[in-house]
Amino acid sequence: MRTRPVRPCTLIAIPIAAAAFLCACSGTEEPAALEIAVSFDESLSAEALDGRVLLLLSTDDDDEPRMQVTAGLKAVQIFGVDVLGLAPGAEAVFDASVFGYPMESLGELPPKVYSVQAVLHRYETFERSDGHTVKLPMDRGEGQKWSKAPGNLYSTPRKLRIDPGQKTRIKISLDQEIEPIELPEDTKYVKHVKVGSPRLSEFWGRPMHLGAHVLLPEGFDEHPEARYPLVLFHGHFPADFGGFRTEPPDPDLECEDSERFQVECYNRIQEQEAYDFYQAWTGPDFPRMLIVEIQHANPYYDDSYAVNSENLGPYGDAITHELVPYLEEQFRGIGEGWARFLYGGSTGGWEALAAQVFYPDDYNGCFAACPDPIDFREYTLVDLYEDDNAYFDEGPFRRLERPAHRDSLGRVQATVRDYNHMELALGTRGRSGDQYDIWEAVYSPVGDDGYPKRIWDKRTGEIDRDVAEHWRESYDLRHILERDWARLGPKLEGKIHIYCGDMDNYYLNNAVYLMEDFLESTTDPHYGGEVDYGDRAEHCWNGDHENGNHISRLRYNTMYVPKILRRIEESAPPGADLTSWRY
User: Fold this and answer.
1) Alpha-carbon span 333 to 339, nearest angstrom
2) Residues 258 and 118 in one domain
3) Is residue 147 part of a domain?
4) pLDDT given at position 30
5) I need a surface site. Which of 97, 281, 296, 520 has the fewest CB within 10 A?
6) Residue 181 CB neighbours (<10 A)
7) Domain count of the chain?
8) Does a structural domain hold residue 37?
9) Which residues, other chains included, contact 253 with Cβ-Cβ below 8 Å and sequence gap of 6+?
10) How far apart (Å, rounded) are the C-alpha atoms in residues 344 and 368?
């Protein structure tokens, strides 16, 4: 970001380096090269704002550029600059020095007409209990999606010819603000809960909350004497309880195909599956339980990974020791560890396994599908303990870029560098709200600046061995189980169940193989659970050998509740309540 000696001028701090400043000016002198200047006026905000200004360029007119951001071949162009105290009328200026993805510089863009849009992702100031003051985007009910976050400012997309070879200054005005999220209403079966968390509020230095969508069993009101087992269905931020529909599919629903699954009218299939689950849930033979999807979005991501973290705070304790007991009290849960269970897929799969490992007495079984890396020797395809660079496999005379995403036939669609450079364009210091940054925020120690220490250099991919060692001892689930099996084994016998497709898109099956090797070798006791793989199955296979992913991913509840019932019958302690909820 270069400074132009034009007045009047407002200084805007760039958090990339404490001494760096953007001179945001409204002068009219001819620029030395192409510049794009973004501003807003007092009609949107009379106050100066902190955050990150994103500049997005697309050649696809089917949707707004802010809704098209992805990594790989279909990536749209992203540039970003941090702003501190950006006043109305002041400008955030993009020139060839600003880092971007997939082109790293504005000067590399091919001259052509683009659909251009800018967004200001707003940050707030947090004064944490660890003594650090940080600027981060608070979740505002959207699940940490900057493109949909209420209060963010954005511009109406414009068709503009961009030619880096011309000495041109293009001005873009942020002219709209994203509206608040409409909250779901309670129904007979689904109740919505939001509770303050003393632990998280103390850590973040402001009131913090946890939310939950609770699916009540059939007959809940008619059986006030019943006490129920509770299941945490972990996953990404749920706007409402998903996959549950009390009405048949809409016959007038416009058909939408699934590009991922190559299935026609997939939205109709989803509605039918949701209605089928409702019919099973209310049927005479379905086990009566509480199923809970929780909301724990935070300033870094759409959920917390359900563990305690130096950067995110004590989310593990808050969920297990604050939220779960509250839900059990409100909705007549049994309230004992033998009657609590965990399942989920992908992020939710990691969370289910991690919560079972870190709170072995509080839960009686986890069913972890396609979990995020559970052994950091296969952190996707990176060995954090042996590799020097995350982005490349190195040889004596050449290097190969390391894949990060494939299809079921192994065709590479994005690389580790793709994802990380996209995130770096979206946000510095781990603030992209995306996948690699949240792993870093959860697993890393706090840096001197109050933000997560980098596991690797985001530009080059060079791995930090000291940070990797912290990850190993604190969050490498296979390593922790092996290290602590003498203590954990007796508490986890029969509780661990892991499922993964052997062609997982993110190569997550590789870490599952390493976990399986350890679990199958355990003695005194043997782990006594299950590890299973889906042949040629992609992300996120969850143990169903009868149906494709497009169906099985919609049936977590009907797949795992019967397994939970068997676990209860096998392991409930003497005198346990096995009858009040079996009506």
Assistant:
1) 8
2) no
3) yes
4) 62
5) 520
6) 14
7) 3
8) yes
9) 267, 268, 271
10) 6
